[in-house]
Structure formats: C-alpha cells, structure tokens
Design brief:
Distance between the termini: 24 Å
Radius of gyration: 22 Å
Helix content: 25-40%
Shape: elongated
Number of helices: 7
Strand order of the largest sheet: 7-8-9-10-11
Number of domains: 2
Length: 261
C-alpha cells in the first residue's frame, strides 16, 4: 500500500450537545475537528482556569482512547455513562481502525508476545467472522453445498500474507482464513469485505479503469483432481463502488499463480 491508512476511510460527522446547542465534530484524514469552536480560543480559556466545553472533552477523549487499557476501550460507552455522547457512534469505523493500528504497534513493539496480539485476534473475530460466514454462505449456494461446518480464524502480524484454505463438497464447507489488522484497516473500513460473494483479503492499488480498485479476493473453484470438491483460490480483480455497494468491475478472473517456495 502506498497511501496513508486514513485516505480511504470515509469522513464522518457527529453531533454532540454542547453548552445548550448541538455542535458538530468531523473525523477526516485521521483527525477530529471541532466545527463550531475556535480551538485556540478554547485552549486559552483553559489556561485561564475555565472549564473545557463538552466538544473539547470529546476531542481529548478521542486521543486518549487509543492509550486506554483494553478493558476500558471495549467497555467505553458503558463506563462513560451520560458522557457516552462524547464518543459518538458515528465514528465507530474510524475508532476500530485507529485501535487496530494502535494495538498492532504495541504488539510489534513487544515482539508479538504481549496481550495485544490476543486483542487483535478478538477484534478480528468480532469484525471478520461474520464477513467470512457471509462469503461462505454465498459460495456454498453457488456450488450447491448444504451447510457451513467449520470456520476458523488464524490471526497473523500486519504485513504477513493473508489467505484461506479449506474444502467444500455437496454436504458442507470448512475453511480457515488468515487475516491481520491490515484487513481491518484497508478492507473492513471501506465496507468491501464481501463483493458479489468474493471475500476481499487486501487492496492492491488503483484498478485498470477510472474509479476502480484492484483487490485480492477469495473465490471457490472446482478441484479438477477431485470431482465434486471445490477449494478456495485467490484472484486479483478490480472492484468499483456504486450506490448499491461494491461490485466486480470485470469478468470472473483466473486464479493467481501459486507463490514459489
């Protein structure tokens, strides 16, 4: 990826009650902006002993949350109580991406032996497993299989190859998917987890046509050596965003070549 992580994360605006009015907070390009305050003037008031306005408290909370203890972050809206409005749900996608990056950095700093690896695993299970199941449901219907028997998630550090292996027959499908925080940052945040049944693993870059994005995705194909059995293959394909969601931009692609050992 050559772009900054925040370039493709959609901007969001939330409204919080502040000093008897409804004020706007906007997340864009990795930062939260107070739309209805002069930030310099507000900080000057604090120096003079004034109380921070709710919008300023919301801005401070946005930065502080990424240094919170994990148990605080996961239960933030509960312990904030009436102040939960200062952590707007409109920023949930941006919050999940930010915490994934924060936990990944901590995990790497501690040589992947710290609890942050478990936190990323839990986050991936919450965000990715429903998407993977939606993909398997679509593919089993296309292939004629009856049920999803087993789905396993294998988390790996950011930068490692992502993929899926498994088997599908007329009775059931079992699969193990390998994902990292990269999937949350570059795929989930765009809402492109499943595109016309294909499970998107990662984003390669701009597509061949204007407005298209090239991705690596999983499709299931019949195994030529085992009649009645299908296996997952990775394909590189262009996708485009429409009013109805993400769509494939071209014909059903051929599988990517197997990596050389």
């Amino acid at each position: 990826m050559t772009d900054r992580w925040y370039q493709h994360v959609p901007a969001a605006t939330a409204v919080v009650p502040c000093e008897g009015q409804q004020h706007r907070l906007t997340w864009r390009w990795g930062k939260v902006k107070l739309e209805d305050h002069d930030l310099g003037a507000e900080r000057a008031m604090l120096v003079l002993g004034g109380e921070p306005a709710p919008c300023l408290r919301a801005l401070r909370l946005w930065g502080d949350q990424f240094g919170m203890a994990p148990e605080q972050f996961t239960q933030m809206h509960r312990w904030l109580g009436a102040d939960a409005v200062l952590a707007p749900k409109e920023f949930e996608v941006q919050r999940q991406v930010g915490i994934a990056l924060s936990w990944e950095r901590s995990w790497k700093h501690w040589a992947y032996l710290d609890k942050h690896g478990k936190l990323i695993e839990r986050q991936l299970r919450d965000l990715a497993l429903p998407v993977v199941r939606a993909h398997l449901t679509a593919e089993k219907q296309r292939f004629g299989s009856r049920t999803v028997r087993r789905v396993e998630l294998r988390p790996v550090p950011a930068g490692r190859p992502l993929g899926m292996h498994g088997q599908m027959d007329s009775v059931s499908v079992s699969a193990t998917v390998t994902l990292s925080s990269d999937w949350i940052v570059h795929v989930w945040s765009r809402g492109m987890g499943v595109v016309e049944g294909a499970l998107v693993l990662d984003v390669v870059g701009p597509g061949a046509t204007q407005g298209a994005t090239q991705v690596r995705a999983v499709r299931w194909r019949p195994n030529e050596r085992q009649p009645g059995v299908a296996q997952p293959v990775i394909v590189t394909v262009d996708v485009v965003q429409t009013d109805a969601g993400w769509r494939l931009a071209g014909p059903n692609p051929e599988p990517d070549p197997e990596p050389k050992s």
